[in-house]
Amino acid sequence: MCYFITTIIPRTLTDELRTLVPRGFTADFYDKKSEENSYITREIPDDFTQVILTSGGCACDLYQSRAVAESEDSFPPNSPLFKQRNPEKLLKKYRKKNWSRAKIERALAAISASQANVKPMYDEFSGFHPKIREIIATFTEKYGSIFIFVHFYSGQINTEKITFQGKKNVTVNQFLHNDFIVDEDVLYTIKYIIKQ
Question: Which residues contact residue 102 at a Cβ distance below 8 angstroms, ignoring those fewer than 6 apart?
Fold first, then answer.
């Protein structure tokens, strides 16, 4: 199905988070604790609530998994360019087909031109989208800390069985660092710490 990002904040701060969410993003709140995912609820304080951050109905555009971020190929797997980034392989393939030198050069030039016009899907960020990082950083700066969790859901958000892969505490500075990639199914506590 899709990725969803769950932030977990004190129930009294839902309006404050809502004001930080920019146009084009949504923050879905639960009216009752009983409507929230019980697997997440077990891991958080009683006075906290789950808030789902999305863009266009899910968070697939807002999160990039570690596997994709560490991949050498930044084109989506369904793109014809996904397997065509290595000209030596193509050269070998075309020679096996007994293509002329001119035909091979035209084909490689066409592929190169196509790659120049296609923007890689994941070239702008790894882990969370910069706007998500900004929301989290601003919230923690104002209110101290926030929990965040990302999961690839195959069923309903509020009933999906979730097996946590761990819990991690990180500072907002670590969270904002470009090399920091959030792992799926890990419950993160992001804290704002002032260095003295």
Answer: none
Q: What is the dihedral of CA 111, 116, 118, 123, to 10 degrees?
A: 120
Q: Are 6 and 44 in contact (CB under 8 A)?
A: no
Cβ(52)–Cβ(158) below 8 Å: no
Q: What predicted TM-score, i.e. pTM, was given to this entire model?
A: 0.69
38-55 residue pLDDT tens: 899 888 888 898 999 888
Q: Could you give the CA distance from residue 4 to residue 149 in angstroms, rounded to a whole number?
A: 8
| pLDDT of 142 strictly over 70 | yes
Mean pLDDT computed over 49-70: 78
> Distances from the Cα of 149 to the Cαs of 24, 40, 76, 144, 181, in angstroms?
21, 9, 24, 17, 12
- 37/157 Cα distance (integer angstroms): 7
Q: Give the span between the Cα atoms of 137 and 192, in whole angstroms.
A: 8
| Structure-token pair, residue 77 | 């797997």
Output DSSP code: residue 181: -
**29, containing H or E segment:** strand 26-29
Run of H or E residues at 143: helix 130-143
**Using CA atoms, how far apart are residues 80 and 8, in angstroms rounded to an integer?**
39
